[in-house]
Amino acid sequence: MKKHTLFSLIILLVSCVEDINHKTIDTTIVNPDISQKTEITFKQLYNLHNNEIGKDTIVTGYVVSSDQQGNFYKEIFVQNTLGIADLGVDNPRMGMRIRVGLTNTSTKYAKGRKVIINLEGLKRTTSDDLITLGKPSGTYIKDILEFELGDYILKTDEVGIVIPKILKLSDLTNHDLNTLVKIEDLHFNINQIGMPFSSLPTDEYDGLRILEFCNTKRRDTILLETSNFADFSDNLIPNAQVDITAIYNISFNNEPILVLNQIEDLVEIGTYDNCPEIVTPNIMITEVADPKEVTKARFVEIYNPTNKEVSLKDWILVRYNYTSFKNTKELAALPISLTNVTIPAKGFVIVTRDKAAFSTYFEVTADIESSNLDGNGDDAYELLDPFGALIDVYGNASNDGTGSDWEYMDGIAVRKVEIDEPNSDFIKSEWEILNVNIDIKIKLKYNPRKRWIEE
Fold it and tell me: Which InterPro entries does this entry report, sorted A to Z (predicted)?
């Protein structure tokens, strides 16, 4: 915390950047006296949890929203810095939303204006990791009424230029919520080109339009939310690539959204470039093993049947395990990241419980070690691509494999050589399975890094 020990000079001056007021321009600002106040950071405010806000406690920040074009309603967004960098290890760049009983907030609080927020008498919520301030109303909060704003949101004479943080959609984090960000080289979903930003009969309060960012390996999306009362609600969605500067937020339906301060913050930068078709490589599971002699050497083999190497960035192998608890069985999904591995053309990736035990027992090396790879013969596995789509599966993740026809306890399950494509549905006939409960007449050999061969 920072304790202010000197009285601020009371300065009456003309602001170099005026608050917007369509009736009378507010040009005089009296800097508040905060000498007896205790300033805390946004992070400290977020971490208060159920603790009460202390007496004479304040936070300071800069207004980053504007309702001049009608796209915000009875709310102000405040950020703890004008810039893009954290203020310190324990003071990251953060933002907050303040509920106010004023429909034209830009007439009182201009974008870029530094404000002092008197926290005493206010309540904060952190639903969806969003800091929101308002007056207490039971377990909820309500608007700070217009006649009270001067007691809680105090203007200073300092006004600056807010610099948006430039990010990719995939790089947005919870720390960016309630702050001003800039996302470059986006386009709207092709099926929405030429539609208005909002005000369609299906847009109950706000229009939600899909923004996309694409490259050859991934497609990321986010919604642009536009109020039906925004001045630009009837503007048509452009057939172009765009850069967007907006507030990053979460909608009432718990979806990530961007919200424009003004239509000028959506800038056309070039010809529309639709997302290319993303073809998922035919990566597949070819062996699942539970060697009885060395359980730490349990492994799953993944094979690339194509003629090109494939990066497994953002791919995930998920093990499904049923455990008994108080006479009930509970399902656990245990993810294993494959992201740091590239699988060669016609090559393999081996995921094991323990690399040392695996290499000692099989005399070959494994690629990934994970404690989550500990299937004891009745666990199912799913292979998910970077978009979370199910590509391949062994077993039935919805059922405990004990006693099932796909159980491989103390044995192995090997994909038949003639199967060269993944299957999101488990088909037992694609596999040869050996476990302790089967009287097998032929010997199945563990063959990591090789397609299985009978002996």
Answer: DUF5689 (IPR043744), Lamin_tail_dom (IPR001322), Lamin_tail_dom_sf (IPR036415)
Domains of the chain (ranges, CATH numbers): 2-159 (2.40.50), 169-271 (2.40.50), 284-434 (2.60.40)
At 343, give phi and psi (nearest 5°). Answer: -100, 125
Write the single-letter amino acid at 164.
P
Can you tell me the distance from the alpha carbon of 117 to that of 76, in angstroms, rounded to the nearest whole number? Answer: 12
Q: 24 vs 142, which has greater pLDDT?
A: 142
Count of alpha carbons within 13 angstroms of residue 110, beta-carbon side: 20
In this structure, what are the phi and psi dihedrals at residue 170, rounded to the nearest 5 degrees? -70, -15
Closest CA to 375 of 262, 271, 296: 296
Give DSSP secondary structure letters for 350-371.
Answer: EEES-HHHHHHHHSS--SEE-T
User: DSSP for 336-354?
Assistant: EE-TT-EEPTT-EEEEES-
Q: What are the pLDDT digits (tens) for 376-388?
A: 888 999 999 887 8
In which region does residue 128 sit, left (phi positive, over 0), alpha (psi from -120 to 50) or beta (all else)? Answer: left
Alpha helix stretches (DSSP H) within 135-291: 149-152
359, 370, 384 from 366: Cα distances, Å: 7, 11, 20
